[in-house]
Amino acid sequence: MSDLRIDYSDLTGLVDEGVRESKRKEEQRARVRSMPMRAARQGALLLALAILPFAVLIRGGVFAYRAWSLGTWPALVLSALATGLVLAGYGWFVSRRFGAGPRVRRLVTRAAIGVGFAYVAWALVFIASENVKSDDIRAEYAQVHPLLRIAASALILVDPSAVITGAGRSAEDYFLMGLPPNEASLHFEQETGYVHALDLRTSGRSELRNRAVELGFWMLGFHSLRHVGTADHLHLSLRLPG
Question: Is 0.90 topped by the overall pTM?
Fold first, then answer.
């Protein structure tokens, strides 16, 4: 009998290499197909991280004010401190992610907290002239409840074209508009010493944008109502505790 044998090892290697190459290509195609979904997830995460400090500051302050009856400034201070902790966590995580040492991490963390408190101070005192209907309303802005001012400032950050058309009112203002005075209106100065309502322009803006603003303020704990008085507008208010 002949001792002739055929060596198939080279062919087996070629087959295995072909299988591996096919798997690599399939994995590459799967990665490409999943890229839009990954991008969407990452975008949603970044958006949530961007919104969280504002939600803690504003929604937390409204909750502390209305549910716990802490008072205007204690509620704001508490929510600002909680926001500072969130920003401190962001600063620590980012600096650690980039391999910063303990000293740099402390510096970045403190800077993040400082930015948060600087924003609160800025939001309480500043409103641009292009974001109010008139100079009179701009002068009235300091009378608006601080939590409502901070919420309006956050809106202007994401929607620079937003315009405040009304804030504090008196009985005479209602007469001038041809409307009977509403003694229960939160546009009047309340027992807190602040006006608890303001109006936003809705004309010349898309319905989707107006609905988004209305929903956003509602989610932050404010009362939002689209109605027509002298003109179509969005009425926003912070109800009293209780």
Answer: no
